[in-house]
Structures are given as C-alpha cells and as structure tokens.
Amino acid sequence: MSSDHPPGLDLDRLRGLLDSERPGLVDGPLTGRLIEGGRSNLTYAVTDGTSKWVVRRPPLGHVLATAHDMKREHRVISALHPTAVPVPRTRLLCEDVEVLGAPFYVMDFVEGTPYRTAEQLAPLGPERTRGAVLGLVDTLVELHAVDPAEVGLADFGRPEGFLDRQLRRWGKQLDASRNRDLTGIDELHAALGRELPNSPTPTVVHGDYRLDNVLIGEDDEIKAILDWEMSTLGDPLTDLGLLVMYSIPLGMPDSPVSTTARAAGHPEPAELIERYAARSGRDVSAVAWYTAFAWFKLAVILEGIHYRYTLGQTVGAGFDRIGDLVPVFIEHGLTTLQEG
Question: Which N-terminal stretch is annotated as signal sequence (predicted)?
C-alpha cells in the first residue's frame, strides 16, 4: 500500500462511515499515515487537508485479544474530556469489523511532542524541562481527583483486591516467559506479596503514565494524555510508582529502554513524590512498594520481549540488548524495597 493508504486503514471505508455517522466533519479526500511509537495498538494520523484526526485500532491479525480495548479506550477518553484532564475529543467508536477489519475509534489530532529521551529534552534547557516534568505530576493529580461515578466510570474496573490481582497477573506473565535463571526475581515477587500496602480510595488509573505518553505543547503545557489501553479503576499510587521509576537513571549507557531521568533540570524522584503528596493530599508513605512493583512489572515485560527475541519473534533493532536490562530492573526493585 502507499503511504496514503497504510496497512490496516481503508480510507475509503473510513470516509464513508464518517460521512454517514458524522456528516460535515470531513471536507475532502482523506490521506493517512501510521504514527510511530505505539507499542501495541496501531495509531494513524488522518487528514482531509484542513482538519486532522487520529484513528486507533488493534494490531493486524490480533483482533480477538484486543478488540475490547478500543471500546474501553474510547469510553475513558470520552468520559474524561469534560474534566480538567487533558485528553483528545473523541468523534466515533466503530465496533463493526467490516469497516477496517477490527473495532476502532476516531479522535481529534492534538499537536504536541512526546519526549522519550533526555536528548530530546536537551533543547528545552533545564528550566523548561523541570517545568514539563512537574506538570506531569500536576496532571496526574488532576486525573486522580476525578470521581469515577460522576463521569460514568463507576464500573470501569474492579478496585477491590487490585494490588493482589496485579501482583498475581504479572507473576503469571513471568512464568509464561521463563527460559533462564533470573537471580532475585522470585525474591522480589515474594517480598512484594508479603508487604502489600493498603490501597487508598480507588481512582481512574492510567496504567502507563510517563512523559512519552503525553503530548507537550510549545508553551510546555500538557495538551493530551495518550495510550489509555491499560487504564482501569484501581490504586492511584501505582501510577505514581511508575512515574517515580521512570525518573530514576538506569545507569546503563545506550539502554534500549528510554528514560528522561538524565535530562538537565529533571526533578529528583523525592520532589515528584512530595509534589504529588502535597497536591493530592494522599498518604505516600508506601511509595517505595509502588516503585518496586513498577520495577518488577517492567522486568517481567522486558523478559517477555527477551523471550520472544530468543524465539525469533521480534522485528527491529535493540531487541538483542533487552535481556541485559532485566537483571538491572530486578536489582533496582530489590534495593528500593530494602531501602524503603
């Protein structure tokens, strides 16, 4: 297919559906391109030459396993749009697989930059970098301040026993990709289980909240939070723990997993924690557990990628080094728990 007709996106059928369901929205022939950067679901930028939209759909050939994600993503973004949480405006949810071969939804295109590395942040300078990262904390506080029931999300998840289920889920994921000895991984898993904290009042949880999952505008304000595929109702401090984890340098040059922690001006984890606590009013005394859990979760994810690499099921550069990162994440997790 040409770049104007990327795989998985039939622009003629999309135009026909939009003209039928949202008459007057599109004014001209559509062109589209695949946006790089997404790890699972496919994201396309579509334009009629005047306006721009984004189409999200499951990966090609994996419809059944992820079809429900589209409805959930569309639901949470639509529910949050009237609140202070910055999300794109949704335009359409289509569950008819005859249109694009899978369920999908359409939302407005939001201009902004997802900063993935310290090198990308460098041109901003220390002061603007600091402001962007602190804004990330403030926006997380806004998300966690939303009452799920007030925006129609009271049944969006099962918050009771959330942490225990999460720990068991990622333990099963680890078992599914075991093909080598990983010193400390079972010790970390067990220690997390023994020290399970009491969760605060449940909120909408993003599930993958970090700097490269938001779009930052030229004014350094966050314009949109993206990639809601792991969102649910649960313990808000899991989002904070993940954000803290991504704010700690890995200590590995040229790591295939990008973090922005080394950027000049990037606030220290302690400042992020203190700011979240002050603005949210939540008790963050157990944040070390949540940060250690984030290290464990990412170690499991990376081990799964490494496992697929050993089976020849990955495509692209950098996968040969993923396996070397896993022990680093395990060690960080153990140290975080031990030091509290």
Answer: none
Write the CATH number of the domain with boundaries 11-108: 3.30.200.20
What pLDDT, on a 0 to 100 scale, did the predictor assign at position 311? 84
Question: What is the Cα–Cα distance from 184 to 174, expressed in whole angstroms?
Answer: 13
Location of each CATH 3.90.1200.10 domain in the chain:
118-339
DSSP states along 92-155: EEE--HHHHSS-EEEEE----B---SHHHHGGGHHHHHHHHHHHHHHHHHHHHHS-GGGGT-TT
Q: How far is CA 44 from CA 4, 26, 54, 56, in A?
A: 11, 16, 6, 7
Q: Are 260 and 116 in contact (CB under 8 A)?
A: yes
The CATH 3.30.200.20 domain(s) of the chain lie at 11-108
The two tokens of residue 163 are: 């942490």
For residue 39, pLDDT beyond 70? no
Tell whether the model's pLDDT for residue 40 goes beyond 80: no
Answer whether 301's CB lies under 8 Å from 325's CB: no
CA distances from 335 to 208, 248, 261, 283 (A): 22, 13, 18, 22
DSSP string, 192-259: HHHTPPPP-S-EEE-SS-SGGGEEE-TTS-EEEE---TT-EEE-THHHHHHHHHTTS----TT-SS--
pTM: 0.92
- For 118-339, which CATH class? alpha beta
Calculate mean pLDDT across residues 226-250.
Answer: 95
pLDDT in tens, 181-236: 999 999 999 999 999 999 999 999 999 999 999 999 999 999 999 999 899 999 99
318-329 pLDDT tens trace:
788 889 999 999
